[in-house]
Amino acid sequence: MNENHPSDGTVDVDAAVVDTADDIAEMRIRGAATIADAAAEALAIQAERSDADSPGAFQRQLRTAAKTLYETRPTAVSLPNALRYVLRGMEGETVADLRETTIARAEEFRTDLEQAQVTLGEIGANRLRDGDVVMTHCHSTDALSCIEAALEDGKEIEAIVKETRPRKQGHITARQLREWGVPVTLVVDNAARRYLDEADHVLVGADSIAADGSVINKIGTSGLAVNARERGVPVMVAAQTIKLHPDTMTGQTVEIEMRAEEEVLPPEERADIVADAPNDDGLSVENPAFDVTPPRHVDAIVTERGQFPPESIVTLMRELFGETTGEPWEV
Ligand SMILES: O=P(O)(O)OC[C@H]1O[C@H](OP(=O)(O)O)[C@H](O)[C@@H]1O
């Protein structure tokens, strides 16, 4: 039997679930779609390895596993959407049936997620013309899918890649684009406005999309979008429907994750600033991971269901989610 870890003091979850939760929290697994995929995989592993001796015990284990995964990072709604989707497929009167349906549902989710990204890319590629220059922010697999599809269509695309402090995820984007042979100009975030004059599009992903069409994405997206609007550069958001945040239909706001000071200011650099007073607590650092771009600064949200003006995204949300909200383990 596999090693188990008590998650809430009463129900054990598999070590693989705890590992995945740690990887998400520490951003070894990151990016909204990748997080959703890993969470679904972890639930399947939990189902596969469960030692539950009754249907009730199995369901409690799966719900505890979902809660463990949910409590890692708060902003990307793809995580609770994935957990809810998988748990809704957990059906049957016996442990064997529950196991089988949960694993099948997780596999279906992961296949659909991959296909949605491909379809989204094909739709997004229609916005990109041969010879266009795209400015990117952070690293988004949904955004890159649009560029990949444009390249497959035979279009030549160039990219201006923002570094994206503090974690420099722009480097991941640059690496992927260079693998595809795309000419890349890497710039620090502060240079973005200067280089917008050379861009035909701003192309970003999303961690969550609110019902009013606001886009919650990596910190710096909103400033980029404001500058792009001022320069007349269209802003395109590539976001699978798994990024639509159902709770915002009933007025909830999206929690913005605040991350550790050390990502911005390593201890040795802090020591330099407060060299004369090592115990100085008058220096504080804020490190929000995301910001909110209002719909008026976004031209199009591209999903696998088509392209939407941000103000109309709520119609798609109602169709996909109805009015259902609540915690993913309370399915
Ligand atoms: O789902 P895909 O398009 O890959 O990524 C969507 C978004 O997830 C990332 O968040 P983080 O790096 O996990 O904080 C970035 O903000 C990126 O735009």
Q: Short summary of the structure?
A:
With 331 residues, the chain is of the alpha/beta class. The chain contains eleven helices and twelve strands.
Structural write-up:
The protein is an alpha/beta fold. Helices cover 43% and strands 13% of the residues. It has helices at 15-25, 32-49, 55-70, 78-88, 95-125, 141-152, 170-179, 192-196, 221-231, 267-273, 313-321, and strands at residues 4-6, 12-14, 133-136, 158-162, 184-187, 201-204, 208-209, 215-218, 235-238, 290-293, 300-303, 306-308. A seven-stranded mixed sheet has the order 5-4-3-6-9-11-12, with helices on both faces. A three-stranded antiparallel sheet has the order 7-8-10, covered by helices on one side. The model is unreliable at 1-8 (pLDDT under 50). It folds into two domains: 11-118, translation initiation factor eif-2b, domain 1 (Four Helix Bundle (Hemerythrin (Met), subunit A), Up-down Bundle), CATH 1.20.120; 121-255 and 288-321, Rossmann fold, CATH 3.40.50. 1,5-di-O-phosphono-alpha-D-ribofuranose (RI2) is lined by residues 30-34, 138, 140-143, 169, 204-207, 217-218, 289. 1,5-di-O-phosphono-alpha-D-ribofuranose is lined by residues 30-34, 138, 140-143, 169, 204-207, 217-218, 289. It holds the Pfam family IF-2B. Substrate binds at residues 30-33, 73, 217-218, 243.
